[in-house]
Write a structure and sequence with these properties.
Length: 275
């Protein structure tokens, strides 16, 4: 009798198993990110991750950007905020898979999901399993789908926000009454200048609420130009980061001015001098 593999093969002799491929990918992710194994999985919650600007030690999360929307559907009109840049991904894992993990005595974690996937591949239990009594039994495709969700959720070094009851939305400004509420919504979010005061280098970070041409300048208190840090197109929702080193500038109070097309933002920057 010729021995045969319990794993299906293509005509070329290659492994053709979605669960196997997803489990291998999850195993690699667990080796790269040791904290991922202990991440809790909850039934009925939105497992939520947030985009980062790049994969790296100092990577920053991409902020959501809300923009105003005006409509004349009422005599007064109304204004709402809509999410123009959405950096969040949401997933709900199949409740029957989490039920199976508990039935097998496994923790409700990503590590537990990895274990149940390996047990399924090794045929440690027979499928389908009707864990919660709803008559739907757990299939290999259900386990594969759950593993695939985790792999996708953290693709691109995304940041775990939590298991949320609801998805993240913009503040509700509906029924604000007049169109003047339009100007209360800023075109920029998360403008950071640090440290301030500073000794040798100051860092500017900001996210634009729209596509625009951006110019970031340093001026003295008389409004005289000292240096241009940014002069380029700025994309909506992208974190912009630039450093300022005064060089031979004497200690003083400086002015930074950020222009996004016709919108201007200014602030004071205190330079104490290199110590």
């Amino acid at each position: 009798m010729t021995a045969t593999s319990c794993l299906p093969l293509t005509k070329k002799g290659e492994l053709d198993n979605q669960l196997l491929a997803q489990t291998i990918a999850l195993g690699l992710n667990l080796r790269i990110n040791g904290d991922l194994a202990g991440l809790q999985l909850e039934t009925g919650k939105w497992l939520t991750t947030q985009k980062r600007d790049y994969c790296g030690e100092n990577a920053m999360e991409v902020s959501m950007v809300c923009t105003p929307v005006y409509s004349d559907v009422t005599p007064y009109g109304f204004i709402c905020n809509e999410l123009k840049v959405d950096p969040y991904w949401y997933y709900k894992l199949p409740s029957e898979v989490l039920c199976l993990m508990k039935q097998l005595g496994l923790e409700s974690t990503v590590g537990g999901l990895y274990q149940v996937a390996n047990k399924a591949l090794g045929q440690a239990f027979m499928l389908p399993v009707d864990c919660d009594g709803d008559g739907k039994g757990v299939l290999l495709s259900d386990i594969s789908g759950a593993v695939d969700m985790i792999n996708n959720a953290f693709d691109g070094c995304r940041l775990f926000l939590g298991n949320l009851d609801q998805k993240i939305t913009c503040p509700n400004l509906c029924n604000s009454g007049t169109k003047s509420a339009w100007i209360t919504v800023t075109d920029i979010s998360d403008m950071k200048v640090y440290p301030n005061p500073f000794n040798d280098v100051a860092v500017f970070e900001f996210v634009s609420g729209r596509d625009a041409h951006g110019v970031l300048e340093i001026q003295n208190l008389l409004g005289q130009w000292l240096e241009t840090l940014i002069d380029k197109p700025i994309s909506i929702g992208v974190l912009n980061r630039v450093e300022y080193r005064p060089g031979n500038q004497i200690p003083s109070v400086l002015i930074y001015k950020l222009k996004l097309d016709d919108v201007v933002f200014t602030g004071k920057l205190i330079y104490n001098g290199i110590r």
